[in-house]
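Researcher: Go.
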Amino acid sequence: MDDDMKDKMRNNPADVVYDTFSRAFLQGMIRMFKTDRDMQNIVMTDMVAREQATRHFFKRAQGMVL
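Model: Structure:
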């Protein structure tokens, strides 16, 4: 997480910042896909798995900034 995302998470309720986090998380996942094709296939084809991963890392990120 960059400082901007940390500030957003500190200063906004979870329901407000989740969409921003979700977009940033997906962009990070896409960068990771360049080296991990199995993960790419799972995340891009299984919306439930993608949402579970996003929520998991969102909660971890909240714990880091709160």
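Model: Residues 3-65 form one domain.
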